[in-house]
Amino acid sequence: MQVSHTRSALSVSFDEPNLVGSAGLVPLMKLACESGLHELTEQRLSMPTDKGANAGAKVTALVAGMCAGADSIDDMAILRHGAMSKLFAGIYAPSTLGSFLRSFTFGHVRQLDAVASRFLTALSRQAPLLGAPADTGQGPGFVFVDVDDTIIEVHGYQKQGSGYGYSGVRGLNALLATASTADTAPVILGQRLRRGSVGSPRGAARLIGDSLATLQRMHPTDQDQVLMRADSAFYGHAAVAAVLKTGAEVSVTVRMDKAVKKAIATIDDEAWTPIKYPQAIYDETTDTWTSKAEVAEVPYTAFKSRKKAERIPGRLVVRRIPELNPKHGEGQPTLFDTHRFHAFFTTTDPEALDTVAADATHRAHAVIEQVNADLKDSALAHLPSGHFGANSAWLVCAVMAYNLTRTAGILAAGTFTRARTGTIRTKLVSLPARIASSARRIQIRLPESWPWRHAFERLFAAIHPPPKTA
User: Fold this and answer.
1) What is the pTM assigned to this prediction?
2) Exposure letters 122-141 (e unless 16+ CB within 10 A, then b)
């Protein structure tokens, strides 16, 4: 592609009052309005002083800016250009939104958490975020709740709560709980911002309980089985017991302590089954996989050091992989192949998930890493304030923007059903348009031959259905 004019034949001027750069915000914010974001915030968020006035409009503005790609308070100026004031009311200056965020205390953040959970519930009534109950795959329907934390890097020492965590990077720690099925992309059930140096399981049991309660409200699971998946950082009695108390099941990676190693040693050599793994080859003759990775399981009771009433029976599923580059000592090399073992504890019924299926299901926990990357590619590219309460509120707004964008992708259908929010933002939200008025009606004129026109039209029609003819 080349510019078709010489430099002398081109000029630039910022003087067109009828243009907008993010026309896709129209159906998104209409969706947010119909889901009650403004009203929920006004009802539940009680902030004193003038900085907390019109909280519903300010939270809605923050979510709108994040949906349009803002990742800092200054970026909220993206809402103040061209004809945006003809399409939207309650557009605030970035400085006003910054003062609003800095007014948040821990209690106010918890109020905003309540808004976010109810907003997600309302969005689930607008679109099937988790599909239809008991229709998530073959056999029993599973809803997967994944829990993980991630470090959001910050710079400087003026960020309240920042510190060096497990990654060795100075930052703040965001704990997330997502929900997904085999056929749907994840939505975020709960979130919590914590100090950068905090241990991963800190507060996880409370977040899990809140998230499962939100899931029950947005997607009744009477016909579905809920399975909480997590890595070894969350293998503790408090988190596991919080899940089982709700009737859900767990699938949690375990640490290779003495008890786990002892259980693995009892597995018979004939019990190992090859699985589909990177570089595996499927043998059609024997109907099996030829793979270096194998799985087996053994009955296992977790937390044996606790009193009997708190011990939890289940299954220990183990995956072993040959050690291709063993570290030999100075003595004689090993006479037998050595393996690396990865084990997880699960309470699922073997009839619902056998050993191979349980292993594949547990490895799919990695889907939450995509959510972390998605957030860091948008609103969580930065934590914009030195005030911890402001950053906590920013995280909640970022989650609401993520869930809103995900809902819009489902309504747009096609490839957008499971697309990244960044893809939805680029193709459906950051859409240039010219605003025209005629006979007291506003017409949004969009680019001709826009490649994703039909998807946008589906989204727009779902939010703005055409008037019924007599």
Assistant:
1) 0.91
2) bbbebbbbbbeeeebeeeeb
